[in-house]
Amino acid sequence: MSANEHRTVLLRGGEVHSPADPFATAMVVERGHVAWVGSEGAADAFVAGVDDVVDLDGALVTPAFVDAHVHTTATGLALTGLDLSAAGSLAEAAQRIRGYAEARPADRILIGHGWDAARWPERRPLTRAELDELTGGRPLYLTRIDVHSAVVTTALLDLVPGVRALDGFHDGQQPLTGDAHHAVRSAAYAALSPRQRTEAQRAAREHAASLGIGTLHECGGPEISSEEDFTGLLDLARSEPGPRIVGYWADLDVERARGLGALGAAGDLFADGSLGSHTACLHDPYADHAGAGHTGTAHLDAAAVAAHIVACTEAGLQGGFHAIGDAAVDAVVEGVRTAAEKLGLARIRAARHRVEHAEMISPESIAAFAELGLTASVQPAFDAYWGGEQGMYADRLGVERARGLNPYAALLRAGVPLAFGSDSPVTPLDPWGTVRAAAFHRTPEHRVSVRAAFTAHTRGGWRAVGRDDAGTLVPGAPADYAIWRTGELVVQAPDDRVARWSTDPRSGTPGLPDLSPGGDLPVCLETVVSGQTVFVRPNV
Q1: Peptide bond into 513 cis (omega under 30)
Q2: pTM of the prediction?
Q3: How open is the CA angle 253-461-314, to the nearest 5 degrees?
Q4: Residue 119, SS3 per DSSP
């Protein structure tokens, strides 16, 4: 525990975003918790009794963000290594791969991320032969932006005996998917040294702190990372300052998840795959797949879902699944409903089980989420990246089906708890950008207010782990907060139909930064977790 957790601090002279006082300009932090929030005049009474006084100079103080779905090591590797997310063509990607390989001659394995052939003029990924030439025949693992498929070199395949016989192996141009992809991913991450892993985890936590993120929900699992990676990250978070880590381990073995220190056997426990890789499980076929009638891949059926939810509930752990396609989401709903029939609805609701992504969700399943108390852990940046009539979703599904994806307004109206995240490195850690993406969804009827989106990215992440006492700056709450340089504070709603009263200053609704598209996003000046400063922007 850091010494500054025991110091009493008065922050004053700014704007404090708090439901306790919509006009607050000051806050007192004591022993890692918020002790008081109020006005500038009342703050004078605290000056003599505190250890430090911080002049906010007009800055905004908000709760720290919670990113509810992150792959921390992979995020760090993308930050410090080969990142192809900005490559605009196959040729540019090839140039970056060659340069990276030449710059790191001592690495046992090369790992990269972020290619998206759907955005390249060539409309195809790099072939294995091309990658072999670019790397000089060294092992390379290179994930598509959705992390559900990968292209690799022959040298990496040679490290995985039997991979060519596994489902999802494609020789030549096609990326690996399914079991073959999981096998090469395990081999690739096993080849990382402990030092490389720790450096990547540190880089990811430091970057998150610089963005005002106080908590990361790590989504690990036997098909995603390794037990050593998962427990090493939890140990690192306990021993070094930075954003706290809440661990989810995607495993049907509930006791293994508990033994690793996970809060739940949940996260990326795959019910299906992804739309970009044509592996999300759909009721109706993909619009753009050469194989007629292709509807993706189902990894779990309703019976398996039900058995897992029963086991998690009885063990006192959260359960949860990755489900993107409508058939996968419906299978999860059917399974959780079956578990509720066995154990009782009250026990299922109390466990706060989760569904990650839930992109293609019908009105009937939305109602079921609300009834069953399922949290929707969602990623608004997915719509910003791939939504719209010209986007990847429209390519995969056709415009009409794509228009129904990520219906945040309908989920909120039904009372479904939302927790926002990035799925980093699929999309970058970018909390204010995430709030903007939800408030300015490419499909107008799915938009929510900035206030609702901000709540889903702060308090929503805490509620998703069973904590109702955090995520807001009120007395007694954990002192997780960020200080921001930003412009005028406003109240933004999607249109005139939504909470028109709240835009009136007389309503006392706390303002938030103007997130209109094209404008600058707030800049984080300082991040504090449990009263401990974990980031200070230099030269401010």
Answers
A1: no
A2: 0.91
A3: 30
A4: helix
- Tell me the H-state helices in 191-264: 194-210, 227-239, 254-259
What whole-number distance in Å separates Cα of residue 262 and Cα of residue 109?
29
Token pair 């970056």 is found at: 96
Whole-angstrom distance, CA of residue 92 vs CA of residue 484: 36
Tens of pLDDT, residue by residue over 128-169, are 999 999 999 999 999 988 888 899 999 999 999 999 999 889
Residue 9: strand pairing partners: 29, 52
| pLDDT tens digit sequence for 356-399 | 999 999 999 999 999 999 999 999 999 999 999 999 999 999 99
Query: E strands within 7-120?
Result: 9-12, 15-16, 26-30, 33-38, 52-55, 60-63, 65-70, 82-83, 110-115
With tokens 């006791």, the residue in question is 255
What is the DSSP secondary-structure string of 306-329?
HHHHHHHHHHT-EEEEEE-SHHHH
Estimate to the nearest angstrom the gap between the alpha carbon of 320 and the chain centroid. Answer: 15
Please report, for residues 325, 370, 372, 416, the alpha-carbon distance to residue 413 in angstroms, rounded to integers and kept in the order given.
Answer: 22, 10, 15, 8
Q: What angle do CA 450, 456, 458 make, to 5 degrees?
A: 100
**Four-CA torsion 349, 358, 64, 201, nearest 10 degrees:** 110
User: What are 378's two structure tokens?
Assistant: 């969602």
